[in-house]
Structure formats: C-alpha cells, structure tokens
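Researcher: Next entry in the queue.
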Amino acid sequence: HIVHTLTEGEPPDYAYTKAVVGIIFDDSSNIPSPFIESLHAESPDFQCTVDLQNFVNTIPPKFYHYQGSLTTPPCSEIVNWIFLTTPQTISKEQIQNLSKIWERHLDGCKNNRFPRLINSRTICRNFKTSAKEGVC
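Model: Structure for this entry, 136 residues:
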C-alpha cells in the first residue's frame, strides 16, 4: 500500500491524518508490474521518489473506502483507507525482491495484524453494480 500523511493545514480536531491506498497484486500470470519496476526495488540500497501519476493513469478508477486504523502499533484510528478494486500484475521475482528489502530494513518484522471486525464502520464504493443502486 501507499501511505500519504497530512502534514500542513490540518484542522486542530482532524482525526484522520493518513490516507492509504491499498493495491492488490496478482502474481498468477507472473507479469512484472510497471509500477514496481519504476521503484527499482532490486537495488540493495532501495530508496526512491515515486511518481504516482504514471501509476494512477493505468488503473481503473473504482475503489472502496472506509475509515480505520494503522496496521502497525499503536494501531491508531487515523487512516482513510482506499482499496483499488482491480488487481495489478506482479512477477514472482518482484515479490522476492520486495521481500528481501522488507527483511533487510525491518529485521524481518511483519507489519500486519489479524483482520479486525467491521464494527460500525461504513464501507463505501465509488461505483455502482446496478442502475438502481446508490454508491454511498
């Protein structure tokens, strides 16, 4: 996922200071992701600046949205989650390279947690599945 943090101009009582775009990758076709390639993640000293415009222009504009929490401690409720509906391709080699970077930079720690209950959250989508239906 891609994380954006609100750093300026935030109202004093604004609770959701992060926006996270979740991208589902599918390795079943083993087709490399142009977006992942643009990161040059095979480099041992991986650091990069990302131009998201090229990525955004290649994906269908359908997504789900809900307000939730971080997946890492302290798991604060400060995130506007946006999940793209269309899986993107990725190669097995790209997954291996990203896994190596993750292990190297975080000492092998995982950044995920078990799924949480929806509770009273509203999950919205920006598209209709039928002509009679609203969006959110």
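Model: The first strand starts at residue 2 and ends at 5.
Researcher: Noted, moving on.
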